[in-house]
Amino acid sequence: MSSGSTPSANIANTLMLRAFTDERLPRPPVWLLRQAGRYLPEYRATRAKAGGFMDLCRSPSFCAEVLLQPLERYKLDAAIVFSDILTIPDAMGLGLSFGVGEGPKLAHPLQDEASIAALRVPDVSSLQYVFDAVAECKRALTQNGVQSVPLIGFSGSPFTLACYMVEGAGSQNDFATTRRMMLQRPDLLERVLAANEQIATDYLAQQAHAGANALMLFDSWGGVLSPAQYERFSLASMRRIIATLKARLPNVPIILFSKGAAHSFAAMAAAGADALHVDWQSDLSLARAAAGKQITLQGNFDPLLLTTDVETIQRTVGETFTSFDAKHRYIANLGHGITPDAKPELVAALVNAIRA
Ligand code: CP3
């Protein structure tokens, strides 16, 4: 990292930030995708207090409360801002809601030319509640002027946001409505992507200004595309977002996660991010071979491990770290988010096995 005001100033545990440098570490840092969430009874209690999931996201103090919950239980080396990627389509007026026990729904999906022509890039100030949550999360991590662990801000990728915006919900068929638009009217999808790129860039920059020490781009559905489609409809816009952020915020590390796109590790590594997140269907050694030694890798334990048993977890961690150098440019994590049926005591077993 370059000199100047480094993002590690006044952070007690800098292990995760040091994993973005060439330093050999005593052990790999560890944090977990969706470490705050429904598998924790205390999270479910806070959400009930808040009223609903988006009410929780709109309350900086509740966001800070759930941010701290996993840190109180486990020895984690980073925290991720409590929010959601769908705040952006919500700010675009697409009518986001989360039913109890259901995935997200958008009341006004972008399924015709008229709605896409009417799509406006929202003013980033309409997402001020997220930046307030970032600042409150940072305050909650800080005591006597010292922040305990780095705070990660995030955004959905333009393509993954477009998947929800066009489909209007999650998908059982690899976002067929979105992919059909891509095949028939790539110009329409590209208009949605351009709007998303513009707001996601400012959204991430504002999170860094509000105190995020690293930024992550979640391209959860990039893997439904072929390599050529992935380059055109997903990676191209992420590459531009990264370039803009690097010009504005050279000291803030950026992590790129395209789930299911292992075919493009080399292209991702050349996109300018500091780290690649590796999903559980790929392999850390494969990613290292394709991406090279100069990029940090993050991942990729199977979230399903958190529904097995302590012995299975210890054996898997042991096997993973015999075949992969975990002390250089590596951040231990899951290959995808913790599921609601994860057992809290097995999360502890995984974190402890990684630290051992
Ligand atoms: O600790 C953390 O990581 C919490 C912060 C966080 C949430 N969502 C909270 C959340 C983060 C980083 C996300 C990212 C997110 N949101 C992604 C990208 C990561 C990924 O998993 O691929 C995506 C695709 C979404 C969209 C989304 N939000 C879906 C599909 C759902 C419903 C299904 C599910 O997994 O829960 C959500 C809701 C959501 N976001 C919850 C949480 C804790 C559960 C809401 C509840 O309390 O019922």
Please give a structural write-up.
The protein is of the alpha/beta class. It has one domain (15-355): TIM Barrel, CATH 3.20.20.210. It contains 15 helices and eleven strands. It has helices spanning 15-18, 41-50, 53-57, 60-73, 87-91, 113-117, 128-141, 158-167, 176-184, 186-209, 227-248, 265-269, 284-291, 310-322, 344-355; strands spanning 79-80, 96-98, 104-106, 142-143, 146-147, 151-156, 214-219, 254-258, 275-278, 296-301, 330-334. Strand 7, helix 11 and strand 8 (254-258) form a beta-alpha-beta unit. The protein binds coproporphyrinogen III. Residues 33-38, 47, 53, 80, 82, 84-86, 98, 103-104, 154, 170, 218, 220, 336-337 line the site of coproporphyrinogen III (CP3). Coproporphyrinogen III (CP3) is lined by residues 33-38, 47, 53, 80, 82, 84-86, 98, 103-104, 154, 170, 218, 220, 336-337.
Tell me the series of helices and strands, N- to C-terminal. Answer: HHHHEHEEHHEEEHHHEHEHEHEHEH
The tally of domains stands at: 1
* Low-pLDDT stretches: 1-5
Strand order of the largest sheet: 1-6-7-8-9-10-11
Name the CATH class.
Alpha Beta
Tell me the structural class: alpha/beta
End-to-end Cα distance, whole Å, is 28 Å
Range of helix content: 40-55%
Q: Could you name the CATH topology? A: TIM Barrel
Q: Roughly what is the average pLDDT, rounded to an integer?
A: 96
Tags for this model:
356 residues; alpha/beta; TIM Barrel; seven-stranded parallel beta sheet; 45% helix; globular; binds coproporphyrinogen III
